[in-house]
Design goal:
mainly beta; Pectate Lyase C-like; globular
């Protein structure tokens, strides 16, 4: 086991971890931008309200070359290995003001067999990215993103008893992700609207985002939130046995601006809810 205390170098500890090792984070705030590159490690805190990893990058921030960070370099923590587990901690991007700064990712998961339990993910727009990237972006970002963040691989992720909060498209990507018994919390946004999930799965993917027994809640004053909108044509989302607060729009789902993705998106809700858009399917 490796124990890292607040104020110590979290990245150095992650870099020296061996496969299967536990990295223990006692209570406190860890101001760090961290990458996990070793498979099979466990990052364990002392509770989501006691151990926090924080950073504040944002899409419109300029790097040392004067180039904007772009969404996919703004993460606080990036998982770039398989079989990683996280327990009992919070990961936060506290840049805030996405209406000015753009997207602000807290956690990027670009690995297979990822597990998160009893954790909290907090940001605004684009809180949680679930790899892989859509294939058009894998090609577009050649030479811009490091190779571990643009691999064309299959990624599965599981979140249990977690709190995930944000404003716009705050759970997005192409992963095969299961959210079980989680609280999905929408926060106030200066732009006055919001979307929870933005899936971008390819047509050949038969598993996308599954929300099972999740509770959709909101900060006071939030309303008109959509459960999902398709970031790419065949985005796949299933909502099963979930509980929705009054902040969720009766329509439930949005087709993404002026696209025709309502004709191709694969959205399912079980049990069905009256008043939803006609293109959401009842069962999967």
């Amino acid at each position: 086991m490796i124990v890292v205390h607040p104020g110590e170098d979290l990245q150095a500890a992650l870099d020296r971890a061996n496969p299967g090792e536990i990295i223990q984070l006692p209570p406190g705030d860890y101001r760090a931008k961290a990458v996990i590159s070793t498979g099979g490690v466990t990052l364990r805190g002392a509770g989501a309200d006691r151990t926090r990893i924080l950073w504040d990058d944002y899409a419109k921030k300029l790097d040392s070359r004067g180039v904007e960070y772009n969404t996919f370099r703004t993460w606080t923590v990036a998982v770039c290995a398989d079989g990683v587990t996280m327990e009992d901690l919070a990961i936060v991007n506290d840049a805030l003001h996405p209406e000015v700064k753009g997207q602000e990712v807290a956690l990027t998961v670009y690995g297979d067999g990822f597990t998160m339990r009893r954790c909290r993910l907090t940001s605004t727009q684009d809180t949680l990215f679930l790899g892989p990237l859509p294939r058009d972006l894998i090609a577009r970002y050649d030479g811009f993103l490091p190779d571990p963040l643009r691999r064309d691989i299959s990624c599965s992720q599981r979140f249990t008893d977690c709190l995930i909060e944000g404003t716009v498209d705050f759970i997005f990507g192409c992963g095969r992700a299961v959210f079980e018994d989680c609280e999905i919390r929408s926060l106030l946004d200066a732009r006055g609207t919001g979307y929870v999930a933005a899936p971008a799965h390819a047509l050949e993917q038969t598993e996308g985002f599954l929300f099972r027994r999740c509770r959709f809640t909101a900060e006071e004053g939030v309303s008109g939130i959509y459960l999902a909108r398709p970031w790419r044509d065949y985005g796949l989302c299933v909502f099963r046995d979930c509980a929705y607060g009054g902040h969720i729009s009766p329509l439930g789902f949005d087709k993404w601006n002026d696209t025709e993705r309502d004709k191709t998106a694969r959205f399912y809700e079980d049990p069905p809810v009256a008043g939803r858009v006609p293109w959401v399917k009842a069962v999967k």
